């Protein structure tokens, strides 16, 4: 077999003289870069981060607009309350999110990771704290190599204090989605918060601190499953951050005044390595498409700036497709992309239909589990039920109670109930009938509730009436 065709064999790991194939992780010092894609990334990150921080503070008709109350097992989202029975709505939301992610990835690669993923947004925020306290990339590298001193302790201490403070704020906001946020802040900073509230705040605080401060690109390259299965959605017409090797190679430094570099066999890449310095995952995009790339476009802005200074055309690194690089037309509209789009439309329509047909109340009839029936002192047959009524809206509702299926039956209990928004009422009801009027041991009946203000809101639930016969 020819030497160039041989597959290199890994060195025996049992050999004590074998080199270390798993070296310790080298820290990535991300260099600041400006440009179109970074402005877009920062603006999008700011919008979604502002939504995250402000949404739990919004009030709607006197209550927290968005509150996922796990104790009460209900999710309040503005004027709508979701209960465990509404799990299909939450399922549709996750399915929509999944297919939207598939569609965007097939079209434009991992732009979700590079522009909107919380891990990326928070990592860049933590890097911003580093830059403001410790300085530029070169200054941070020098600071880490310098021996410990008072100045180094101060800068490192301020950096980690800023990280922890921002992580605490993030954690409080996150927990505030699951418990009243205004009371959470008051109780936490006055040391009156419950044990579990404090535990969850601290857990999420240290998770944020660890993920964005220490692990960073490890979350994207080793832990997040999305980096692994993204290739199943890529094709030769997917727009990804790509280096134009035909134009850039061979690499080599040169002066700005050198106009004869192509005669020397050089391409447009001056091998400045800025594309590597600005990459948050530390890869070299010139080595081709890599699963670590999150499509953030930082290398594009850095390269475009260099090309502009050298007087070359921009776009040596750009969002492009494999077909485009090979001189073939890019097929934007293609079967796989259309398939994801059609499925996305279908699940969005199903989600909309589920919301449109969802009634703002729910009825459940529970029979007395102690006995099927009992005989009263008057000789009547009595069955006992509990009507469990859920008001799924955020407004107070009054419901009229009734039943059908039998005649000459005494109704014992209230016939109208008022329930607060997002609350539940259990109404005990007894039905009694003369045994002489009963023709069979079990009779099918149906309980109904009707909104007193809107007759179109009417719910029914079947049950049975048992007798001695």
TrEMBL record:
Enumerate the InterPro entries for this protein.
4Fe4S_Fe-S-bd (IPR017896), 4Fe4S_Fe_S_CS (IPR017900), Cyt_c_oxidase_cbb3_FixG (IPR014116), Electron_Trans/Redox (IPR051684), FixG_C (IPR032879), Helical_ferredxn (IPR009051), Ig-like_fold (IPR013783)
Q: Please report the stretch or stretches of sequence annotated as the 4Fe-4S ferredoxin-type domain.
A: 259-288
Per UniProt, which keywords does this protein have?
4Fe-4S, Electron transport, Iron, Iron-sulfur, Membrane, Metal-binding, Transmembrane, Transmembrane helix, Transport
Whichever gene encodes this chain, its name is ccoG
What Pfam family is a match, any one? FixG_C
The transmembrane residues are 44-60, 89-109, 161-181, 193-212, 337-356
Q: What's this protein's name?
A: Cytochrome c oxidase accessory protein CcoG
């Amino acid at each position: 077999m020819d030497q160039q065709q041989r597959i290199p064999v890994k060195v025996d790991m049992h050999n004590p003289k074998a080199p270390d194939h798993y070296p310790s992780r080298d820290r990535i010092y991300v260099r600041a870069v400006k440009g179109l894609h970074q402005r877009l990334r920062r603006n999008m990150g700011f919008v979604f981060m502002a939504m995250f921080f402000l949404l739990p503070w919004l009030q709607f008709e006197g209550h927290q607009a968005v509150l996922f109350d796990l104790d009460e097992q209900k999710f309040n989202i503005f004027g709508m309350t979701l209960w465990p029975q509404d799990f299909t709505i939450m399922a549709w939301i996750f399915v929509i999110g999944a297919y939207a992610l598939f569609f965007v990835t097939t079209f434009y690669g991992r732009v979700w990771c590079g522009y909107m993923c919380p891990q990326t947004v928070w990592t860049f925020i933590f890097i911003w704290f580093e830059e403001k306290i410790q300085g530029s990339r070169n200054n941070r590298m020098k600071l880490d190599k310098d021996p410990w001193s008072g100045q180094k302790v101060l800068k490192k201490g301020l950096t980690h204090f800023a990280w922890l403070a921002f992580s605490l704020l993030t954690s409080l906001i996150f927990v505030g989605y699951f418990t009243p946020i205004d009371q959470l802040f008051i109780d936490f900073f006055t040391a009156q918060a419950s044990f579990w509230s404090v535990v969850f705040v601290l857990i999420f605080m240290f998770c944020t601190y660890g993920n964005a401060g220490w692990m960073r690109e490890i979350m994207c390259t080793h832990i997040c499953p999305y980096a692994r299965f993204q290739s199943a959605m890529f094709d030769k017409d997917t727009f990804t951050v790509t280096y134009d090797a035909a134009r850039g190679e061979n690499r080599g430094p040169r002066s700005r005044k050198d106009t004869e570099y192509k005669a020397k066999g050089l391409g447009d890449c001056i091998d400045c390595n800025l594309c590597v310095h600005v990459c948050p995952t530390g890869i070299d995009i010139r080595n081709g498409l890599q699963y670590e790339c999150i499509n953030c476009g930082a290398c594009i802005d850095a390269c475009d700036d260099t090309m502009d200074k050298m007087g070359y055309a921009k776009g040596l690194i750009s969002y492009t497709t494999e077909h485009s690089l090979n001189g073939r037309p890019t097929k934007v509209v293609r079967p796989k992309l259309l398939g994801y789009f059609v499925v996305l439309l279908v699940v969005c329509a199903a989600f909309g239909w589920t919301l449109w047909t969802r009634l703002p109340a729910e009825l459940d009839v529970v029979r007395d589990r102690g006995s099927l029936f009992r005989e009263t002192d008057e000789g009547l047959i009595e069955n006992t039920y509990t009507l469990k009524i859920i008001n799924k809206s955020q407004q107070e509702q009054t419901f009229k109670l009734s039943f059908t299926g039998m005649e000459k039956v005494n109704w014992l209990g209230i016939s109208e109930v008022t329930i607060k928004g997002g609350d539940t009422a259990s109404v005990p009801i007894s039905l009694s009938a003369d045994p002489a009027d009963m023709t069979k041991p079990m009779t099918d009946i149906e309980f109904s509730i009707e909104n007193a203000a809107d007759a179109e809101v009417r719910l029914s639930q079947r049950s049975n009436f048992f007798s001695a016969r």
